[in-house]
Design goal:
Length: 173
């Protein structure tokens, strides 16, 4: 099952783990014991689940976003972020990957800003623990994503300007 294909009435233009939860519940009700997914690793601009840009990072578009989901996303943040979106058009036809990714990234950034400003000490500590536990890949991947954004979201690093092709040059440039 491709998660992106699990579309719901209130989706943000792509299937996500909220719709996956509903699908799993439905499948269990009719007797299925297993649901197999296509890869959910983060993809590049081709959006192919078989052409992931990370073996560890999940595709951000699979994250379910709604008011209070994640808990740092307020109704106001949600409404403001999507005020200029024509949902019937976004939800019709094929997935508009570029637009959906842009909108979901924008709202995830808002939720993270809220988390950074207001999360309890326990939640901040849990986040720090996660970062430490994932330190073998997370800092380098975050840096790679920043460089991707600087280069039109292209994961093809060998086509980036020379100053971004070497870790040493990119960190100092």
């Amino acid at each position: 099952m491709p998660v992106f294909a699990l579309r719901g009435e209130d989706d943000l233009g792509i299937g996500d783990v909220g719709a996956l939860r509903e699908f799993i519940d439905w499948a269990a009700e009719i007797g299925f014991k297993l649901v197999q997914l296509l890869p959910i690793n983060e993809t590049g601009t081709d959006n192919s689940p078989y052409n992931a840009i990370s073996a560890m990072a999940i595709e951000p578009t699979t994250v379910h976003l709604a008011p209070n989901s994640p808990q740092d996303l307020t109704r106001e943040d949600f409404d403001v972020a999507f005020a200029d979106i024509d949902f019937p058009i976004l939800r019709s036809g094929g997935i508009k990957y570029r637009q959906v990714k842009k909108q979901k990234r924008r709202i995830l950034e808002r939720a993270f800003a809220n988390f950074s400003a207001r999360a309890s000490v326990d939640r901040q500590t849990s986040f720090q623990k996660f970062c430490e536990e994932e330190s073998m890949w997370l800092p380098d991947y975050a840096f790679f994503r920043v460089l991707m954004e600087e280069n039109d979201d292209s994961p093809t690093w060998n086509r980036w300007p020379a100053q971004f092709q070497s870790l040493e040059r990119a960190r100092t440039g």
